[in-house]
């Protein structure tokens, strides 16, 4: 698996350090507020796990699976709910956790949905931001790392459902896309 990676963009150590830093910030911001933390499946799963271990105040977790991708590398532009929340969001402080913001279509759809459902506040934390890909007018409140306009895998991010279990963020060798 590792030999299919051309280069590592963000190391395991850098990711863990960043989780510590953002975790401390969230502890301060949400102390005493019992936020509802929403992980966007499947990509946010490793980041959510590592990050929330560093948040030292009470919180509730739920998950949503919203898809604008078909398993390949191109956005279809179409957002659909694969799995909805089990929790009511009305009156809650929401913290959405994402792996990457690219076009921003997924997140702008979610933010509109949660506003419609009368959330008290909505904040977004994303591990990666790819600002060059943006078509929707949306910005994360907390960004781990900015990445260039390249397709990245690892630490939750997949190519055809593979590589999510890599502990770092990297770029695939071109021949991997060929097969
Ligand atoms: P949008 O375009 O709606 O995309 O902001 C958000 C979702 O698209 C996926 N995505 C990627 N997945 N490498 C990936 O493995 C990438 O470079 C990439 N760019 C976008 C991802 O699932 C994200 O949640
Ligand atoms: Mg994906």
TrEMBL record:
InterPro entries assigned to the protein according to its UniProt record, in alphabetical order: HGPRT (IPR050408), Hxn_phspho_trans (IPR005904), PRTase-like (IPR029057), PRTase_dom (IPR000836)
Q: Which reaction does it catalyse?
A: IMP + diphosphate = hypoxanthine + 5-phospho-alpha-D-ribose 1-diphosphate; GMP + diphosphate = guanine + 5-phospho-alpha-D-ribose 1-diphosphate
Tell whether rRNA processing is among the UniProt keywords. no
- Cell compartment(s), UniProt: Cytoplasm
Q: Which UniProt keywords apply?
A: Cytoplasm, Glycosyltransferase, Magnesium, Metal-binding, Nucleotide-binding, Purine salvage, Transferase
Protein name from the UniProt record: Hypoxanthine phosphoribosyltransferase
Annotated pathway, please? Purine metabolism; GMP biosynthesis via salvage pathway; GMP from guanine: step 1/1; Purine metabolism; IMP biosynthesis via salvage pathway; IMP from hypoxanthine: step 1/1
Which cofactors, if any, are listed as required? Mg(2+)
Q: Which Gene3D superfamilies match?
A: 3.40.50.2020
| The protein's Enzyme Commission number | 2.4.2.8
Tell me any Pfam family this protein matches: Pribosyltran
Function (record text) = Purine salvage pathway enzyme that catalyzes the transfer of the ribosyl-5-phosphate group from 5-phospho-alpha-D-ribose 1-diphosphate (PRPP) to the N9 position of the 6-oxopurines hypoxanthine and guanine to form the corresponding ribonucleotides IMP (inosine 5'-monophosphate) and GMP (guanosine 5'-monophosphate), with the release of PPi.
CDD domains according to UniProt: PRTases_typeI (cd06223)
